[in-house]
Amino acid sequence: MGVLDSVAARVASGETVRFRPTGSSMVPLIRSRQLVTVAPVDPARVEVGDIVLAKVAGTIYLHLATATDGKRIQIGNNRGRINGWTGHERVFGLCVAVDGVPRGNIDGKLRPVE
Q1: Which numeric CATH code is attached to 3-101?
Q2: What is the pTM of this model?
């Protein structure tokens, strides 16, 4: 189980998680090792341009929502690569802050704490 798998499990259980992802596919939105905060999301509220934590074809990504069609969300990086479509049940969280700076347009998108 990788770091993102562990983070996804925690977010899916309702926890807001802060961690430092690695990689360059989301530059300049997220740079490698920047501190990100991911909170549980209501997948039906995700919009194109949101950064989500989602599972596509067995891999967990912290990537952009590039399209939606009602029951699925298309995930891709910030360099134009599309990872694929995934169902709402595999969209776990929304990036709400990067290095402590809140991301805009999160109102009404977070899943209520049970």
Answers
A1: 2.10.109.10
A2: 0.95
